[in-house]
Each structure stands twice: as structure tokens, then as C-alpha cells.
């Protein structure tokens, strides 16, 4: 699922960039856009991440152990990506570099993705755009690590209230980004509440897995049918990145559609392999 999501994100970005140079009616580009955005890869990643990271917390010896594992899981890969990025721009755009590359390096190594001002006009204008989710994931991991023990004790009704609140936050971020634009829109893009609905649906499915997973398995086909209707209905449904209806249905479909069978976290709490959004 995650390889499929990663490939869809890659091809969607390709179609977005290449689409600048071709007609809007280009059949091939439009087909790529339609296929790769039907199940939004970012939504899939965040929802699986919520499920897996909740499982990781329960396998951790303590909150400190959980955070140590998250740092060990994310930062070495991030630093390798940063080094590769630095080498590439030094080879291909050495004549454009100035002191802003140092600021970029210092922020990038802690997980804050950005493009140095000297490279704003180089290529697509974003030398590491794919890493924008790292900072958002870090925020979500911190929030989960601090609140998980409370979340685990919530009743299903209280979980529903929480998820409704997070859905409202997603829609509000969509309206706010359009209304204000500029720096505010950029902050919204990196703020954890914007995407928390997908992540915490995954957490909810893990916390309540004994009841939720069997129920999702029984209704997976109707959920898929409803999802298709939502995607094709000729009505504009609000929501940041994905319309909120699809953004709620997709995580339940992903988790209920087989993730739990493959990973078997419920039956095997001794599994030591660590997963996160960044894998795949």
C-alpha cells in the first residue's frame, strides 16, 4: 500500500510539473492525475502512520523509549537525504549558491524542509519538496507521545467527538489557507492539526482494533462504493488536500482493507520492526 501511495505521489508531482508544458486537454497527463489522486497518497501515509505509531508506543518500554525510537528511525534517513540534496545542488547549481544554503542546512537537519533563497529559481523552485511532511510527522509523534495514555482510555463516543473536531480543523484550515494565503497558508501547510484527522483515525483504529477492525472488514465493500460516489459526485466538498468526506473514508478503507491482517499487531505485540511514515 505504501509503495503504491509513494508511486502515486511521485507521478502526481510529475504530471503537475509536466502539465505546465502541455495542453490542459492532454489525455495522458490528465489520466495520470486522475489515477494517482483517486486514493490520495498523503492520506494513506498519514493514516497508516497513525496505526503503526500507536502500535510502536505500546511496544515501547516508556515514553522516553518511544521518542528515542522515533528519532533513531527518522533522523538518520533525513540526514542522508539532506547530504544527497547538498551534493546534488553543489554539482548542478554551484554558481547560484550563497550563505542561504547554510541556513537551509541547519533547518533541514532538524526536519524543517525549505528551499534556500538562492535556489528559488532553480529547476522547480523546490529542492526538497517531498520532505515537507517530516516536520508535520514530528509534531504528530510528539502529540501522540504526550497524549497516548489518555487517548487509550477514551470511550468510543469521546473518540468520535475528537475525530469530528479534527475534521472541522481540516476544513477550517482549507478555508483559512484560501482566505489568507502567503505566510499563513505556508504555516497551515506545516501545522499538524491540518492533517491530524487522518493520523488519528489510524490511532483510533489501533486503540479500538478489537471492535473496529472486524466491523470495518464487514463493510469494506460498501465503504469503497461510498468512496467512489464521494469522488465522482459533482459537488464541491471542502477539505484541506482532500475533500473531508474522502479524507475520512480513505483511512478506514486502508486500515480495514487489510493492513491489520498483514501486520498482525493485535496478535503479535513482540514484533520489533519499527515503521513510520518515512519508510517506502
Summary, kept brief:
The protein has 280 residues and is mostly helical.
Main β-sheet description: none
Ranges where pLDDT stays below 50 over 5 or more residues in a row are: 269-280
Shape from CA axes?
globular
Helix fraction bin: over 70%
Mean pLDDT: 88
Total strand count, please?
Answer: 0
Number of helices: 12
Question: What report would you give on this structure?
Answer:
71% of the residues lie in helices and 0% in strands. The protein is built from twelve helices and no strands. The protein has helices at 2-18, 27-38, 41-59, 63-92, 100-108, 132-151, 156-180, 182-190, 192-207, 209-218, 220-232, 244-263. The longest helix is centred in the first third of the chain and has 30 residues, at 63-92.
Please outline the helices and strands.
Elements: H1 2-18, H2 27-38, H3 41-59, H4 63-92, H5 100-108, H6 132-151, H7 156-180, H8 182-190, H9 192-207, H10 209-218, H11 220-232, H12 244-263
Characteristic key phrases:
280 residues; mainly alpha; 12 helices; 71% helix; disordered C terminus
Amino acid at each position: 500500500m505504501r509503495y503504491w501511495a509513494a508511486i502515486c505521489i511521485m507521478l502526481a508531482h510529475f504530471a503537475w510539473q509536466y502539465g505546465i508544458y502541455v495542453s490542459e486537454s492532454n489525455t495522458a497527463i490528465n489520466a495520470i492525475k486522475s489515477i494517482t489522486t483517486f486514493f490520495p497518497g498523503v492520506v494513506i501515509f498519514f493514516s497508516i502512520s497513525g496505526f503503526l505509531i500507536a502500535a510502536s508506543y505500546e511496544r515501547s518500554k516508556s515514553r522516553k523509549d518511544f521518542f528515542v525510537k522515533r528519532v533513531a528511525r527518522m533522523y538518520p534517513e533525513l540526514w542522508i537525504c539532506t547530504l544527497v540534496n547538498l551534493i546534488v545542488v553543489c554539482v548542478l547549481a554551484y554558481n547560484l549558491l550563497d550563505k542561504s544554503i547554510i541556513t537551509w542546512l541547519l533547518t533541514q537537519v532538524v526536519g524543517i524542509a525549505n528551499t534556500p533563497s538562492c535556489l528559488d529559481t532553480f529547476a522547480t523552485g523546490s529542492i526538497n519538496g517531498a520532505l515537507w511532511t517530516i516536520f508535520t510527522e514530528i509534531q504528530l509523534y510528539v502529540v501522540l507521545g504526550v497524549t497516548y495514555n489518555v487517548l487509550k482510555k477514551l470511550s468510543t463516543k469521546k473518540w468520535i467527538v475528537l475525530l469530528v473536531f479534527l475534521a472541522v480543523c481540516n476544513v477550517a484550515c482549507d478555508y483559512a489557507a484560501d482566505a489568507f494565503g502567503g505566510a499563513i497558508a505556508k504555516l497551515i501547510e506545516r501545522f499538524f492539526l491540518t492533517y491530524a484527522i487522518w493520523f488519528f483515525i489510524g490511532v483510533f483504529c489501533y486503540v479500538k482494533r478489537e471492535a473496529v477492525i472486524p466491523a470495518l472488514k464487514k463493510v469494506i465493500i460498501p465503504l469503497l462504493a461510498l468512496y467512489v460516489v464521494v469522488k465522482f459526485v459533482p459537488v464541491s466538498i471542502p477539505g484541506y488536500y482532500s475533500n473531508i468526506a474522502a479524507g475520512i473514508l480513505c483511512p478506514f478503507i486502508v486500515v480495514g482493507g487489510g493492513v491489520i491482517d498483514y501486520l498482525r499487531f493485535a496478535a503479535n505485540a513482540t514484533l520489533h520492526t519499527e515503521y513510520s511514515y518515512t519508510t517506502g
